[in-house]
Task: inverse folding
């Protein structure tokens, strides 16, 4: 193993009075104490009087968990030599998790040749929008399909689309109108198609229901609509006083998906000014065509500024109808004899072949297809998928991808208690082994700030105790930080003095449980670092992201989360579940800064609690300071508040006796329990971040017990057996992994993102080389459903093994 000598611990009375340059050599403690046993490391080690090594050196090739003698020599101090006995850490062997998943996990199929669009996108066209998987033009030349009004996402028969009431809502493409559509070729040929679903209850009995339209203020242009009386689809072409209509064969089929394809086709060899024209209208593959004169043909001089509109008319009123729309197609040249590619579209399908029974092949349902582009397709694994090994592959109308071996784990929660005390090994019980059977290391960067995340190299055992190491702003050793994608983080911003070098500062360490835990008691007994600047945390978490195509999307909404995104968002519409509770240190004592007392009393309080502390900074001197809420039932009364201190303590001023407590179901909102917006603004809060006073300094080089008791209706937070705070809001209910460690909340400076923003350093500056958190006990006690007051939900995470490093490593 390799270690870095970062500090020398002087023996009592041996500390030099000034910095020293020393020689360093070493031998195994059981080797003879003679010159031949020593290996020289350096003769220029520069050490400060407090023992800090200014130029840390790496000592390579040492054995694991072995005592060594490090000899420091200098004729001017400690009699010429100083021997320090050092027991090397028990360095852990780890490796990233393999191709492992759970039901509800996201899985990607990748194509190196060919395209997943084959069979899913018509081969010729101006634009194509799948809508259920993407609002972008998959042909890549036009802007996103946009939504107006109160249109919502809706599923029918396993397919997803936008549910539109033509009286209030619509979808449209801003840069596609009649001139843009019909001037793509000399004969003014074009085609338009859309898939639509209409429930029997939504199909009107009279009037017309627009499906597609692009018309100017005078009604010139095109309109494709359903005649609600006859249930037939009509294609109308209007130019000045000339109008052409083509009525489709057959009627709309209610409670089913329909597709319509309309357009103009002219013989490209005929006279462009007097072409042989054909209008066509296909409904569900049934064809009807009309030959017309050129009077109603759109010429390039037509000024129709209204964009191509879906589910409503671009101009006009009095229409009636509702439906779900997907697969919008715009073509410049569609022959009525070769258009089957549109109404026979089929999406790629993912397959899971059991490795134990190759005859058993499961097709992933279409409703689990959540994203697709030419080279990658993404599914969520069905919730009912049995655990086991599978070969995963994807088929479209053209080819099959190479199978990838994966393993699907069952979603279960731990039912047994454990209490691992590293100070109490016996001949038959090794707490280090017990810990490694329950926990893994983490290697990830969650926030992507001016830090390097957490890395597994910083997790080890020293003198039998679990040690988590953090590297501060002075670190320049071998360990490199990670980026948000899990690769080595680099200094990449022009202007950064370290441009091109690996990121090494502000890198922490964390471990996470192998199992998912439900309601119960979590205990970690740990000695925190001596200096602030890093954030010790103790957290249970479960993360899932659902695109609106995903079956879990509606489940997440029904559990109080809110939809995010838009047609302009790369992810489209999605919901993000962030099922967490935890405690972090250090913290400032206030959650918000008000300008005046009047502003404080006018706020809308959503989740007030006793002990809520806020700052008032721009009122009178008598008012300015830190205030505490004493009567949560009446937060808008001045008598419910007491001035806590004249001091104004900002986020950048963390205190060693303060604790941050977070209960979360999602990521939206301010998390402070109130809003300055009017009551009429929808409550989008999904988490509550509290502050609490510990009542003492817990960064005092002593061990403290950090405990969290999780019930169905609350989480209780304890330190050294004393209840610090109870959080009753946004109590998670999904079983999750338990993790703890050292991290760096490090928002980047706006104009120099390689630096931290000093105003947002909630843990303070890390003006040191390295520090450690030592853990001597970890324990978990599950609660029964009766004690907890409820039953946990069991749901797979979207990426359950992302950033997880196993130790000891066991190949899949």
Result:
């Amino acid at each position: 193993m390799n270690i870095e000598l970062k500090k020398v611990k002087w023996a009592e009375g041996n500390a030099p009075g000034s910095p020293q340059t020393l020689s360093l050599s070493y031998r195994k403690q059981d080797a003879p104490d003679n010159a031949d046993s020593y290996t020289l490391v350096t003769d220029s080690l520069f050490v400060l009087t407090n023992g800090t090594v200014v130029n840390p050196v790496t000592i390579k090739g040492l054995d694991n968990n072995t005592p060594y003698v490090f000899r420091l020599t200098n004729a001017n101090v400690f009699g010429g030599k100083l021997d320090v006995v050092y027991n090397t850490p028990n360095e852990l062997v780890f490796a990233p998790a393999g191709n492992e998943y759970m039901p509800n996990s996201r899985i990607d199929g990748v194509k190196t040749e060919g395209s997943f669009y084959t069979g899913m996108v018509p081969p010729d066209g101006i634009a194509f929008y799948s809508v259920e998987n993407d609002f972008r033009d998959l042909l890549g030349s036009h802007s996103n399909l946009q939504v107006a009004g109160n249109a919502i996402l809706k599923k029918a028969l396993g397919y997803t689309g936008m549910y539109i009431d033509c009286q209030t809502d619509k979808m449209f493409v801003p840069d596609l109108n009649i001139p843009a559509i019909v001037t793509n070729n000399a004969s003014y040929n074009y085609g338009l198609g859309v898939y639509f679903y209409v429930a029997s209850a939504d199909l009107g009995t009279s009037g017309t229901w627009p499906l597609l339209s692009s018309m100017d203020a005078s009604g010139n242009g095109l309109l494709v609509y359903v005649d609600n009386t006859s249930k037939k689809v009509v294609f109308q072409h209007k130019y000045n006083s000339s109008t052409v209509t083509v009525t489709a064969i057959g009627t709309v089929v209610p409670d089913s998906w329909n597709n319509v394809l309309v357009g103009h086709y002219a013989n490209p060899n005929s006279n462009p000014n007097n072409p042989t024209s054909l209008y066509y209208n296909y409904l569900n593959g049934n064809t009807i065509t009309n030959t017309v004169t050129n009077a109603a043909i759109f010429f390039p001089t037509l000024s129709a500024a209204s964009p191509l509109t879906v589910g409503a008319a671009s101009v006009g009123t009095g229409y009636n109808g509702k439906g779900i729309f997907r697969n919008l197609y715009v073509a410049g040249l569609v022959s009525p004899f070769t258009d089957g590619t549109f109404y026979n579209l089929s999406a790629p399908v993912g397959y899971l072949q059991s490795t134990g029974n190759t005859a058993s092949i499961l097709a992933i349902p279409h409703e689990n297809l959540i994203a697709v582009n030419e080279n990658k397709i993404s599914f969520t694994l069905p919730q009912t998928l049995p655990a086991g090994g599978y070969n995963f592959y994807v088929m479209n109308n053209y080819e099959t991808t190479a199978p990838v071996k994966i393993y699907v784990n069952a979603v279960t929660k731990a039912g047994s208690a454990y209490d691992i005390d590293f100070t109490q090994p016996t001949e038959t019980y090794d707490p280090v082994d017990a810990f490694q059977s329950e926990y893994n290391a983490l290697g990830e960067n969650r926030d992507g700030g001016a830090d390097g995340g957490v890395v597994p190299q910083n997790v080890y055992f020293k003198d039998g105790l679990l040690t988590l190491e953090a590297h501060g702003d002075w670190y320049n050793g071998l360990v490199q930080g990670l980026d948000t994608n899990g690769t080595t983080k680099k200094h990449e911003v022009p202007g950064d003095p370290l441009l091109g070098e690996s990121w090494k500062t502000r890198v922490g360490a964390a471990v996470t449980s192998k199992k998912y835990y439900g309601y119960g008691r979590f205990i970690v007994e740990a000695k925190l670092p001596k200096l602030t600047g890093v954030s010790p945390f103790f957290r249970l978490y479960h993360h899932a992201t659902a695109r609106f195509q995903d079956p879990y999307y509606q489940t997440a909404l029904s559990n109080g989360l809110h939809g995010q995104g838009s047609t302009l968002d790369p992810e489209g519409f999605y919901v993000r579940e962030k099922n967490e509770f935890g405690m972090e240190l250090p913290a400032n004592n206030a959650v918000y800064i008000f300008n005046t007392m009047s502003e404080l009393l006018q706020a809308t309080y959503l989740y007030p609690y006793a002990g809520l502390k806020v700052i008032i900074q721009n009122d009178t001197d008598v008012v300015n300071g830190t205030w505490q809420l004493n009567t949560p039932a009446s937060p808008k009364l001045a008598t419910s508040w007491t001035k806590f201190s004249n001091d104004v303590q900002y986020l950048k001023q963390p205190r060693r006796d303060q604790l941050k407590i977070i209960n979360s179901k999602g990521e939206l909102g301010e998390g402070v329990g109130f809003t300055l917006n009017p009551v009429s603004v929808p409550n989008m809060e999904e988490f509550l971040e509290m502050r609490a006073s510990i009542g003492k300094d817990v960064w005092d080089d002593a061990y403290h017990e950090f405990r969290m008791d999780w019930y169905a209706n609350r989480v209780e937070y304890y330190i050294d057996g004393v209840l610090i705070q109870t959080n009753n809001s946004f109590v998670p209910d999904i079983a999750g992994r338990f993790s703890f460690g050292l991290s760096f909340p490090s928002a980047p400076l706006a104009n120099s993102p390689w630096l931290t923003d000093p105003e947002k350093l909630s843990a303070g500056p890390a003006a040191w080389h390295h520090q450690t958190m030592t853990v001597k006990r970890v324990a978990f006690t599950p609660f029964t459903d009766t004690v907890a007051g409820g039953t946990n939900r069991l749901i797979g995470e979207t990426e359950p093994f992302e950033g997880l490093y196993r130790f000891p490593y066991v190949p899949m």
